[in-house]
Amino acid sequence: MLKTTPTQRNSSFKWTARVIGFVWIFLTGCFAILNIFVFVQPQWIGDTIESPRAGHFGLYSYCISTVNDYEFDCQGTWTNFGTILSPPFAVATFFVGISALLILICLALFVLFLFLRARLVYFICSLIQMICSICLLIALIVYPSGFDHDTIRSVCGSNVNDFYLGTCQIRWAYILAIIAFVNISFLASLGFFLGMKQPKLDTMQEVINPNHILSKYGELNEALDDLTLSEQVLPSITIQRR
């Protein structure tokens, strides 16, 4: 029967790890879009049919209906924290903004796969993703403590208090922020796992082929090396009789 050599098993693992790595990169890009979307949308909380007036609130901006209820007066900008309703909202804005900035940096660092070992790049990017998850968690916890504000009471009723919305409700942007937190936490864990599964340079040299010269460049540049390696693997397949 055919006997699988350690070289073949290692080559198969490398290609499987690369496929998972590409999925990891794609999902990181999706999270970056989601993070920015959550940051700019003023739909974290909003009115219901029981609310005194229409309105919705985001991290830094909010919109409240005018007297005739046909138009909305929107205020607040992330470039001026003085326009944000409450300090907890400002803190949440800061941490979600930091998360968005860090994940963009993480996407830019993916180019390091061309120049550095995948093991190191995975660890660097996963650490950034872990910081992003911590920032989102802080924002999700701190944001509800800012409900106790007169402007929010004008929309959600006089019973509004910290962590209690009165006649208002949580809207889709806050739910997306929770999904984003779960997503980036999973991606950070997956990145650390992929990094730990990447063999070290000396280990790769010994396991794959002592005579095989590994690329001094990054993981993606080893694709051509793998073609040469596959040619080296074929003669090593042996047929044994029972």
UniProtKB/TrEMBL annotation:
Q: Which GO terms describe its cellular component?
A: plasma membrane
Instruction: Kindly list the places in or outside the cell where this protein is found, as annotated in its UniProt entry.
Output: Membrane
| Membrane topology type | Multi-pass membrane protein
Give the highest taxon in the source lineage: Eukaryota
Q: Which Pfam families match?
A: L_HMGIC_fpl
Q: Which InterPro entries match?
A: LHFPL
Question: Which GO biological process categories is it annotated with?
Answer: sensory perception of sound
Primary residence: membrane
Q: Which UniProt keywords apply?
A: Membrane, Transmembrane, Transmembrane helix
Transmembrane segments in this chain: where? 21-40, 89-113, 120-143, 172-194
This chain's protein is named Lipoma HMGIC fusion partner-like 3 protein
